[in-house]
Amino acid sequence: MGEAFEPRVVAFCCRYCAYSAADLAGSMRLEYSPNVRIVKLMCTGKVDTLHLLKAFEDGADAVFVAGCEEGDCHFLEGNLRAKRRVKQAKKLLGEVGIEPERLEMFNISASDAPLFAAAVNEMTERARRLGPNPLRKEAEKVA
Ligand code: FES
Question: Does the C-beta of 43 come closer than 6 Å to ligand 1?
Answer without folding.
Answer: yes
